[in-house]
Design a protein that fits this description.
Chain lengths: 96, 912
């Protein structure tokens, strides 16, 4: 097994702290996937945020009906997610 | 309340025993501390070895428990203590926790969850995903009612004298709901614009984040919220309330206290008239605070929020006596005349031209009076408080040739806000410490110099500060053109002295109701408390409004609670919640105008945060109290079920017997650091994996938590925290082998291409169909490696390396890379059972489970007659064994109740 002795795993943040950030990041997540369904690593790359944190945020958005997954074939490693119809209005709610 | 039996715990053991006893005709009280019955079983994906759906098996029992006519289910409740009685029965104290939701009204529609602004780890999904502070426990919950997790008042909210829900508006800003944040603020206090500029923000001092990288810049967040709202709403959104009351109310003084009282009374529909002696309303906001701290257009917009309610402000109308008001037929009066006068100074030359009071200087400046001209002058400000700082900085902005402050103590003792002292000094204002005025020298009636007495610090005085003492013979004279005296503020209470004044000239009022000695006349704000913070004056106005309404309604002013906030959550409690490293999130620096620019004008020094900055700063909030009381759920709930005034309730009950079914604890995988739990998102526990496999999973499919990838190579590590003396648990947990095999089979069904490896010391598959289940897994391709795992480490690319000893295969220490590792955590004793009884306590076995003294022949009996135990509270067992044990315990309870009732009847009849 190849071992890269220089690369080190990232230290995870406190999970509660990550989860609180969902409320801040959800509009930005919606913005990057506005036009096209994306995998979680693609969303993370677009935002410049860690994959595991984006996973928590996207799953939170999915739980509350803002995002849904597309069907995946067995050969695919990742699901693609898209904004749920009508969710944009809810994401933009506020400041009126 | 009397019951035959109290069952403590609503898991599968408690439900089984409770239903059995209910079916026998006994009156059962079931006490469950969580919002739903179901325990841990309902959270499983399937049960072994039948692979029946856990929900399908559990849900009917949960439903039956919730609907059985002989079972009284009390969720969100805890047993505080149980006391044995001489007749073999028990008395117990129950506490029903506040959920802030009326269960009778809640329909379980979950609309509240979608608007909640506080995301918290979902403990029902073992923290894999977030839920909200208001939530329904899980989809099959019985009863299916929302609950709010609220541990108390957040320190920021609790620190606010006016009870502003600081945590609430911060969480709303974090969520991007700026208008809602503004409206929430207006529920608790008016004048948010002024507060966003000039409040000394006790909330910031109380912020728990201050124990980490620095407190939140809450005032800057508020300013962003206010500026955004005012930009979008140049005029208030509301008008005069429809249901007008007939009792007219007079308020004297239009400073923060008067405006606040007017606002809250007008919202209730009272006609309010404010009398203000000055040409414009605002009191200290307009006449004291410099525009570079509080722009006047902000004061104007704040006041519009109050006049929009129909409040009439009569400016230029001084009130000379109480009678002047009373003659006009007002039903109640609130005196909020403030402290706009300066304290007198008895010193030679006080009356010279060019020796002015600071408040006169400040208000004169704002009104363009020539007496306040400092341009080109050598200005000396006497005093060390905030007014002194304001006067010095205003003089500088007028173009003074030089400005210095003279203070009789040192900088360390100055009462002014630290930040303001630093700002003043950074602008070039000199501070002369340990000096006091000894007299002012005039020429032609105008001051030309000041004589300064050198001081030194002596022993501490009543305030705790060291007392300044003159140094004999050390008096110095220095030239000066303008002397500004800022040595304290005096209340403007003279015309109302007949009401009764304290020694310092403030109104003598009842501290709770602010009532004076004259019925219907109330007084508050700085005129009652002495000079204080704006927010404290607003709080006084709010309090006065509350009691004035009670007075007008003919209600008592005594024995009522005005401030019913929950106790504050401690910093230690909040900080102890962290399970991993917190983000290093430095406080956002509030931008300021550069010194060279700001000293030439009255332009606001502090600049606003950008939207991104405001939200980033708000996201530093630790949600100390958990629920922020942002009140979004209140507005969203169609049933009106949410009540933040709900409080916990205690009840005393009598029961014939007690059945303990408090279940087990799971081993905390962090206690085995070599297994790396917490170091990678892809090292999870088997309970988490069960959630991922369950139909009500936190994700959309079986994906790994690090990046959503469908895992292709999954490892199970058995005996994590069991059969392991290094973590203090030598017991076998009995279920880990089988649940791991169950999960392996489910994964192979869900991910046919995945490889599953199970590392174990050995496989214990005893029980009906268990060994066949094990063999079936082997047949499906699950790989079993016999050998203890030594170490688990994450790689930089999110995979995980397992180091293990292979006993049967390659032999020796080996390493393998997986893309997901599942720790099959063991069960451990739940100590909760031992806190239930007041002496004698329940006896425990060597492994800290509830002792059954005669386990073989009398299962379910404990060391205390009348107290029984069911399920895993008495030892590790799987679900079928738990159900059997619960049946046995129920039989024991029934026999005890029958025996005891016969004994009691015999005793009553006088038989032996």
């Amino acid at each position: 097994m190849p071992e890269d002795l220089t690369a080190k795993p990232r230290i995870l943040r406190d999970r509660a702290e990550v989860m609180r950030d969902e409320l801040v990041w959800r509009q930005r997540i919606a913005a990057v996937m506005q036009d096209t369904p994306m995998t979680l690593p693609e969303i993370a790359a677009a935002l410049g945020q860690p994959n595991d944190e984006v996973t928590i945020w996207v799953m939170g958005m999915r739980r509350y009906g803002l995002i849904e997954e597309l069907p995946k074939s067995r050969a695919d490693d990742y699901f693609r997610y898209e904004l749920k119809h009508g969710s944009q209005g809810e994401l933009n709610h506020g400041s009126h | 309340m009397k019951y035959d039996v109290m069952v403590v715990g609503g898991g599968i053991a408690g439900m089984e025993a409770g239903l059995t006893l209910g079916d026998m005709g006994f009156n059962v009280l079931m006490v469950e501390k969580k919002p739903s019955v179901g325990g841990r079983m309902i959270l499983l994906s399937k049960v072994f070895p039948t692979l029946d759906c856990a929900s399908c098996v559990s849900a009917p029992k949960m439903s039956a428990t919730g609907n059985h006519p002989k079972v009284d289910l009390q969720v969100n409740s805890e047993v505080k203590d149980i006391r044995p009685q001489l007749d073999g029965t028990f008395k117990a104290k129950l506490v029903r926790k506040a959920t802030f939701v009326d269960p009778a009204a809640c329909t379980g529609c979950a609309k509240c969850e979608t608007v909640c602004t506080v995301a918290t780890p979902d403990h029902y999904n073992y923290d894999l995903a977030a839920n909200r502070a208001i939530h329904i426990a899980f989809p099959q919950a019985v009863p299916k009612k929302a609950v709010i997790t609220k541990e108390g008042s957040s320190p920021c909210s609790y620190a606010c004298p006016a009870g502003v829900q600081t945590h609430g508006y911060v969480s709303l800003v974090r969520a991007g709901k700026y208008a809602e944040a503004f409206r929430l603020h207006m529920e608790d206090a008016p004048l948010p614009g002024s507060l966003s500029r000039a409040c000394y923000a006790p909330c910031e001092g109380a912020c728990t984040r201050g124990d980490l990288e620095g407190n939140l810049s809450i005032r800057a967040i508020k300013r962003f919220m206010v500026d955004r709202y005012y930009a979008e709403h140049p005029e208030p959104e509301y008008g005069i309330p429809e249901a007008l009351r007939s009792d007219r109310i007079a308020i004297v003084g239009s400073g923060p206290a008067g405006l606040s009282a007017a606002y809250f009374l007008a919202r209730k529909g009272y006609p309010v008239t404010l009398f203000e002696s000055d040409p414009e309303a605002g009191g200290m906001l307009r006449h004291g605070l410099p525009p570079y701290r509080l722009p006047r257009e902000i004061v104007d917009r704040d006041i519009k929020n109050i006049t929009a309610l129909g409040v009439e402000i009569k400016t230029g109308t001084p009130i000379g006596s109480l009678e002047q008001i009373q003659q006009q037929g007002y039903a109640a009066t609130f005196l909020a005349v403030g402290t706009l006068a300066g304290q007198g100074l008895e010193v030679q030359g006080r009356d010279l031209e060019g020796v002015v009071d600071a408040m006169d200087f400040l208000s004169g400046t704002y009104q363009g009076k020539p007496s306040a001209a400092a341009a080109g002058q050598r200005v000396v400000v006497v005093g060390g408080g905030n007014v002194a700082i304001d006067a010095a900085r205003v003089a500088l902005r007028q173009g003074a040739r030089q400005v210095s402050m003279v203070y009789r103590r040192t900088r360390a003792e100055m009462p002014a806000h630290r930040a303001e002292i630093a700002d003043a000094l950074s602008e070039g204002i000199a501070l002369q410490e340990l000096r006091a005025p000894a007299g002012f020298v005039g020429q032609g009636g105008k001051v030309v110099a000041a004589r300064w007495q050198e001081m030194r610090l002596g022993a501490p005085d009543a305030s705790g500060r060291r007392r300044p003492e003159p140094v004999p013979g050390h008096i110095k004279e220095e030239p000066a053109d303008l002397i500004i005296l800022a040595i304290g503020l005096a209340p403007s209470t003279g015309p109302f002295a007949g009401l009764g004044l304290d020694l310092d000239g403030t109104f003598a009022v009842d501290q709770e109701s602010l009532a004076t000695a004259v019925p219907g006349v109330f007084a508050g704000g700085d005129a009652a408390t002495g000079p204080g913070m704006i927010i404290a004056a607003i709080a006084q106005g709010k309090r006065a409004a509350f009691y004035i309404e009670r007075f007008l309604n003919g209600e008592s002013l005594q024995g009522v609670t005005f401030d019913a906030r929950l106790p504050v959550v401690s910093h230690d409690t909040v900080l102890a919640r962290a399970e991993g490293p917190r983000s290093a999130r430095p406080k956002t620096k509030v931008p300021e105008l550069p010194v060279e620019t700001r000293v030439r004008s009255m332009v606001e020094v502090e600049q606003p945060l950008t939207e991104d900055q405001a939200r980033a700063e708000a996201s530093r909030c630790l949600d100390c109290g958990v629920c922020s009381e942002c009140h979004q759920c209140v507005e969203a709930c169609p049933a009106g079920a949410i009540h933040f005034d709900q409080r916990e309730v205690e009840a005393e009950i009598e029961v014939g017997s007690v059945l303990v079914a408090t279940g087990f604890d799971l081993f905390d995988a962090r206690k085995k650091p070599t297994y790396g739990f917490g170091s990678s998102a892809n090292i999870i526990t088997a309970t988490q994996m069960d959630r991922i496999l369950a139909p009500t999973r936190p994700y959309n499919s079986v994906i790994r938590p690090s990046d959503g990838k469908a895992p292709a190579n999954i490892a199970y590590v058995l005996c994590t925290g069991s059969r392991d003396c290094t973590v203090g648990n030598s017991l076998c947990s009995r279920v880990c082998c089988m649940y791991s095999i169950k999960q392996a089979q489910l994964i192979m069904g869900s991910l046919p291409l995945a490889d599953v490896t199970i590392y174990s010391i050995d496989i214990r598959a005893y029980g009906k169909g268990y060994d066949e289940f094990y063999e079936q897994a082997q047949g499906m391709g699950v790989r079993f490696i016999k050998g203890r795992v030594a170490k688990i480490e994450p790689t930089a690319d999110d995979n995980v390396i397992v180091t293990y000893e292979d006993i049967n295969g390659k032999v020796g220490v080996q390493k393998a890379e997986h893309d997901l590792v599942v720790l099959s955590v063991g069960l451990s004793a739940n100590p909760e059972a031992f806190g239930l009884m007041i002496a004698p306590g329940l006896a425990r076995d060597p492994y800290n489970y509830v002792l059954e003294p005669d386990e073989d022949l009398e299962p379910g009996r404990t060391s205390i007659p009348g107290v029984f135990v069911a399920g895993t509270a008495a030892g590790v067992r799987d679900i079928p064994d738990t159900v059997l044990h619960s049946g046995a315990a129920a039989a024991q309870v029934a026999a005890y109740l029958r025996r005891n009732s016969s004994r009691t009847a015999a005793a009553l009849a006088g038989r032996p």
